[in-house]
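Lab notebook, bench 4. Continuing the backlog of folding jobs that were queued last week. Each job is logged with the same field layout so the records can be merged later without manual cleanup. Today's entry covers Lipocalin, a 166-residue chain. Filled in by technician R.K.

JOB TYPE: sequence-to-structure
TARGET: Lipocalin
LENGTH: 166
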Amino acid sequence: MRQLIWAAMLALAACAAKPAPEPVSLRDPKGWISSAVIFDPARFGGTWHVAQSGVAGCAGAKQNWAWTGTGYVLSGVDCSGTKPRQLEGRLAMTGPGARFTPTEAFGKEPVWVLWVDQDYRIAVLGTPSGHFGQVLVREMPGRGDLMTAAHEVLDFNSYDTRRIGR
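JOB STATUS: finished
OUTPUT FIELD FOLLOWS
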């Protein structure tokens, strides 16, 4: 009888839902990370395309960042986590520099604009945890020299650039 009870308990334990896997960091969380200091949130607003991210299947996905005066209303495709999903929610500007706190998107982790070129054609976003990182461009495909610069920014901020080229 005791063996039957143990067998039943083991069977129930095997059926229990497994917890969701912990997100994998795309960067060394002990490494340096910095956000853009010179940043115009109104110029950043508008439509962006995901040129590269750590999520397979996100290349070319559109994101709309509608500036409200204090943050952004988001729509499009969220390329954080393990697979693309609907991007929705708001980002409140929390600074210093280009740092934001989302209500729903990006796993609710703080999102930093690590770099944006002076003409706002390309931007690099990430999180201090490294669970999220992406290169955004206004028009696909991203210009070669700007993509090279974006990868240098990712590398400077302790990202593994081999994992963001999807």
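OBSERVATION: The two ends are 55 Å apart (CA to CA).
SIGNED: R.K.
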